[in-house]
Amino acid sequence: MLAVSNTSPISNLAHIERLDLLRPQFPLLLIPGAVSVELSAHPDPAASAAIHGAVQDGWIRVAPVVDSPMLRMLRAQVHRGEAEAIALAAELQASMVIIDELEGRGLAVNAGLSVTGTLGVLLKAKRAGLIDVVKPEIVKLRDIARFFIAPALEAKVLAASGE
To answer: What is the pLDDT of residues 130-158, one digit of tens each?
Structure first.
């Protein structure tokens, strides 16, 4: 499965020491240059080391993005990393784009892409038996990574996980 990720899912999962949940789901994860630059500036040394290790291992790879009308249009609407991730996923006809931000998710869906985010990664990890419960991971995301999740969305995710 070819997947492309924006910064926040990788950054947030690395920040809570759960980057390992991505690899079984996405054995090859592509990131555009703008995402690579953002990840290289991660403020947490342990998270930064985990991300660097994933790149060194080759399962997270930087891929170039072609300058296109779509990319220019996206850059006018969302942050550069999001724009490049969506454009790269569309260009490569990726099976999945991993993005958390609501506006970026909407643009990705409008581009015909399948979308998941950090919470989707956690749900799939539970279904695959990689984690036993989702709730503690959400708590860590909120408390450690400062990840915002609306109460209604949290309730929906927990219900979907059977918690």
So the answer is: 999 999 999 999 999 999 999 999 999 99
What one-character DSSP code corresponds to residue 41?
T
Residues 84-117: b if buried by 16+ CB within 10 A, e if exposed? bbbbbbbbeebebbbbbbeebbebbeeeebebbb
Q: What fold is seen in the domain 3-160?
A: Rossmann fold (3.40.50)
Instruction: Using DSSP, state whether 1 is helix, strand or coil.
Output: coil
Contact 31, 10 (CB under 8 A): yes
CB atoms within 10 A of CB 152: 8
Retrieve residue 9's tokens.
């899912």
Diameter over CA atoms, the chain? 44
The full set of domain ranges for the chain reads 3-160
Q: Where are the beta strands (DSSP E) in 6-151?
A: 29-31, 60-62, 96-98, 115-116
Q: What is the pTM for the complete model shown?
A: 0.95
